[in-house]
Amino acid sequence: TEQELSAVFEQTIAADQRIEPRDWMPEAYRRTLIRQIAQHAHSEIIGMQPEGNWILRAPSLRRKAILLAKVQDEAGHGMYLYAAAETLGVDRAELTEKLIANKQKYSSIFNYPTLSYADVGVIGWLVDGAAICNQVPLCRCSYGPYARAMIRICKEESFHQRQGYELLLAMVNGTEAQREMVQESTNRFWWPSLMMFGPPDGDSPNTRQSMAWRIKRHTNDELRQRFVDMTVPQSEALGVTLPDPDLRWNEERGHYDFGEPDWDEFKAVISGSGPCNAQRLAHRRRAHENGAWVREAARAYAEKQTAKRTG
Ligand code: ACO
Fold first, then answer.
1. DSSP alpha helices (H): ranges in the chain?
2. According to the model, what pLDDT value does residue 311 have?
3. For the CA atoms of 281, 42, 135, 54, what is the dihedral angle to 10 degrees?
4. Which whole-number Å values give the CA distances from 292 to 42, 79, 263, 287, in the listed order?
5. What crossing angle do the helices spanning 220-238 and 144-172 adopt, rounded to 10°?
6. Around 171, how many Cα atoms within 13 Å sit in the side-chain half-sphere?
């Protein structure tokens, strides 16, 4: 009976074991996972655009090769994640349709422009740094296929973060103009990076249930704090100032205190009116339409192969 199945599901979660695609699961658990994994996949795919903007203008062959490889990794992450979502009974084509029809979200961070080459380094340092903080706990997510996808993604994400930091180290040891570029980029990306963790816990409708199901392992505010604590020493090593006058070590708490991100800006960005939302979606839609002939050819080829086998 449904009651027995539900009891098995609850026991599996309580024992910290994994739910696999063929196991019974509550519909709301399935829906939550589809929502989060699809958003995550879309973020990887849309996330190729801000950095892709610099591939043709990277300052050396070495930097260009690094950036190309990194952007390709993001496409790969999107693919693992769409595959993980498909184990829940949706298909990738349907998810892509929803993304380009503006019916599913992707991370707010990718709606900000990349105005200077320093942004490539700062995205690696701050954006990939925040992504790792958020995603390492997802390696222990209760849903097996998502948890397993996250293990590989996190390894590559750590490499991306190092890549960004190394680029910034080169720039801060360069000319005064390069140091200024790094500072200016940090000023633009700091607050949006903090927003990646989602709304404050009091305004996060999904956290409580997702924690009970062990999809999420920490709240949005816990991870944001962890990120700040991890990043301040790195900013000091780089000689970059984080643009927050309220940022200071709190001896009693054993953590850094920090200011409040502009949550009105966050709401505007996730509801579609951030600086680049329209551009990002239009570009994704165009790429999808331009790829129609490839999908068509793949389908025709598959049909021919099936006909050969069965005929
Ligand atoms: N950007 C866009 N939307 C966001 C963001 C954000 N930074 N933060 C929260 N939201 C959305 C949520 O998706 C939710 O919307 P929905 O109910 O319409 O789906 C709403 O705001 C309320 O937020 P929460 O209740 O806190 O939602 P949730 O429990 O899903 O937590 C979080 C949000 C932390 C982003 C979670 O979904 C998560 O960990 N996702 C996986 C990681 C991920 O997607 N990373 C992508 C960026 S990193 C990268 O790709 C390099």
1. 2-14, 27-46, 48-52, 61-86, 92-100, 118-122, 128-135, 144-172, 176-195, 207-212, 220-238, 263-268, 277-290, 292-310
2. 76
3. -50
4. 19, 18, 39, 9
5. 20
6. 28
Q: Angle at the Cα of 123 (from 58 to 125), degrees rounded to 5?
A: 110
Tokens encoding 300: 């025709």
Per-residue pLDDT, averaged over 104-118, amounts to 98
The predicted complex's ipTM stands at 0.98
What pTM was computed for the model?
0.96
Pocket of ligand 1 (CB under 6 A): 35-36, 39-40, 43-44, 47, 105, 107-108, 131, 134-135, 195-199, 204-207, 210, 216, 220, 270
Instruction: Report the C-alpha gap between 111 and 281 in whole angstroms.
Output: 10
- 39, 128, 213: residue to mutate for ligand 1 pocket, most atoms within 8 A of CB: 39
Under DSSP, is residue 100 helix (H, G, I), strand (E, B) or coil? helix
Q: What is the pLDDT of residues 232-270, one digit of tens each?
A: 999 999 999 999 999 999 999 999 999 999 999 999 999
Q: Of 215, 208, 247, 250, nearest to 231 (Cα)? A: 247
What pLDDT sits at residue 14? 97
- Angstrom distance (rounded) from CA 115 to CA 281: 19
Choose the residue to mutate in 270, 273, 276, 277 for probing ligand 1, maximizing ligand atoms within 8 Å of C-beta.
Answer: 270
As a whole number of angstroms, the distance between CA 268 and CA 265 comes to: 5
- Asked if the model's pLDDT at residue 28 lies above 80, the reply is yes
Residue 197 DSSP SS3: coil
As a whole number of angstroms, the distance between CA 45 and CA 106 comes to 9
**Which one, of 108, 69, 85, 98, lies nearest residue 36 by Cα?**
85
